[in-house]
Write a structure and sequence with these properties.
Blueprint lengths: L1 E7 L10 E8 L5 E5 L6 E4 L2 H8 L5 E5 L17
Antiparallel strand pairs: 1-2, 1-5, 2-3, 3-4
Length: 83
């Protein structure tokens, strides 16, 4: 398991602002969860970290910044499911 933050350098939507806008966790099975830092916060579950980036990356305006030093135990980009 590895923690991350979504850091928004440019607020393209005009809603979230800039800086750290969400906290997240990448689980060992490749799934991820994000929790927004907002007055009305939302928690979202994702099939992969790639999906988080695809929806919230805004073409590089928002970055995934790893909080933990350890490398993830899954290959990023490879969504894995329980068999």
């Amino acid at each position: 398991m590895r923690r991350f933050q979504l850091v928004r350098d440019r607020d393209v939507s005009g809603v979230s602002g800039t800086g750290v806008v969400a906290d997240g966790v990448l689980f060992d099975d490749g799934h991820a969860v994000t929790r927004w830092r907002a007055k009305i916060a939302q928690t979202c579950a994702w099939d992969s970290i790639d999906h988080v980036e695809a929806i919230h990356g805004h073409g590089g305006a928002t970055r995934i910044v790893w909080v933990d030093d350890a490398e993830p135990t899954v290959q990023l980009g490879a969504s894995q499911r329980w068999q």
